[in-house]
Structure formats: C-alpha cells, structure tokens
C-alpha cells in the first residue's frame, strides 16, 4: 500500500437504473460530490453499493469507472462481498491492475461459519494470490470475527492492513484499537462515529457518510481540533439521520438522501424496496436539521 487511507471514506451507492442495469455515467457525479464535500476517499462495490448483486463484469467496470472519476484526487477502495475464497480471489484479480488502494473484504457470509483456521486461510490465500492490501469488513453476523481473531489474521498475513469494524458494540471496537494499534482501524459504527473517533479510529467507512458527507467530514475535523461541543451537536443530528435510514433497505434510503442533496435519482436492485413515504419524510427532516438540503436540486432551481 503506497499510502494509508485515513479519514472519512464514504461507501458509494451504485447508480442503478429502474430496470436494474448500472448507469455508469452517473458514477462520476457521485465521486465529484463526495470529493467536493471533503471526503478523504471512497469505496465502491460494498454493501451500501449493493455489491453482493454485481456480477464479475459489472464489478470490474464499476471499480474502473470509480477510479477513472477519482482521477487520483482520493484513494478508491474496492469492496468484495462473496461466498467463497475462489470468487473473492477472482474479483480481486479483476481490479488489481487499477489504481485501487485496497480491497475491502467480508468474511464469507453463507449459512455455515468457517472455523478460525479456515478464516485465516481465506484471507491468506486472497493476499497471496492478489498481492493487494486487504481490509477486513467485519459485518457478517454469523461470521463475526473477534478482535483476537482479526489481530491474528493481521499478524499472520501482512497484506491484511486493517479492519472496518461494524455493529454497535464499542467495547469490541475499543479492544481492537488496543490490540492492533499499528493497523488501520475504520469505524462502521454509524450511530457512534463521534465516540469512535475519540477512541482513535483511523477513519470511517459507513453508509452515514454517503448519506451526509458534508456533516460527516465536519465531525471528523472538529474531533481532530478538539471542538467537542460542535462534535456532540453533529453527533446528535447525524444520529437522527441514521435512525431514519437504518433498515433492511438501507442502500435505498441512503440513495434517497443523496438525491435530496442534488445527485441524480437512481434505484436499488430488486427485490430491495425503495424508501417508503414514511422513510422519505424522516430522511428529509433529518437532512433539514443538518442544513444539508441547501445544495439540493430543489434549492438550486
């Protein structure tokens, strides 16, 4: 890894058309918007981007379009959400010739949980065969990795450079920060970004960042400067937004929030439902509280 990506790294939504196909020309506007908000990087093909629905060709082309749009202005992380070591390696090889900073890889997420040695071997084979830096995306409930296991993987596989720690347990996050201080530990605890940053998180990769990048970047900055009064204020407003978007159709709610702030309207892939009228009203109200609608298409008209 030539650089250690840190800071606010939003996971992009994938711009699907209503027929479920990707509208690749809409990748660049989102990249430009995120960079314009001050984001320090972006991730493509993750769970917010419904990466589990992408076939190999779509995945390759989406990451390529993201890298091309970024034009070296910010690092791009490529998400991989698949059910086998074989498929994870194949996807990694598809993007290793691109200017990708790292792969963000979930543990396998099928019904049966691999044991600890199988999990270590999964990431070791990925590293050996792709030669790319890897960030563990610790999100799969039935394959959730303990801080001790993640630390073991990072110690035994040097190309595993960090962890994106999800779920709401800050104790596990704090343990991981203490056990792996030299690795990159990103917060995906969307509801608790403020305390994650105060615990020393090296950055964040989480849907809330994509739904409200301007406020998310400001939160990161004010924690760094020690302005905790403003940080607490932003935390409360971002938590209100998170409570409005967290649901089984989180990607759809995130893209709706983006559309209110000026990005073109896009859709989720079936069978994921779009944001309901109640969700839309709550999201709009939360964004109004953040002052995020000033840059919306409605305001610009």
From TrEMBL:
<dbReference type="InterPro" id="IPR002220">
    <property type="entry name" value="DapA-like"/>
</dbReference>
<dbReference type="Pfam" id="PF00701">
    <property type="entry name" value="DHDPS"/>
</dbReference>
<keyword id="KW-0456">Lyase</keyword>
<feature type="active site" description="Proton donor/acceptor">
    <location>
        <position position="137"/>
    </location>
</feature>
<comment type="similarity">
    <text>Belongs to the DapA family.</text>
</comment>
<protein>
    <submittedName>
        <fullName>Dihydrodipicolinate synthase</fullName>
    </submittedName>
</protein>
<dbReference type="InterPro" id="IPR013785">
    <property type="entry name" value="Aldolase_TIM"/>
</dbReference>
<dbReference type="GO" id="GO:0008840">
    <property type="term" value="F:4-hydroxy-tetrahydrodipicolinate synthase activity"/>
</dbReference>
<feature type="active site" description="Schiff-base intermediate with substrate">
    <location>
        <position position="164"/>
    </location>
</feature>
<feature type="binding site">
    <location>
        <position position="205"/>
    </location>
    <ligand>
        <name>pyruvate</name>
    </ligand>
</feature>
<feature type="binding site">
    <location>
        <position position="48"/>
    </location>
    <ligand>
        <name>pyruvate</name>
    </ligand>
</feature>
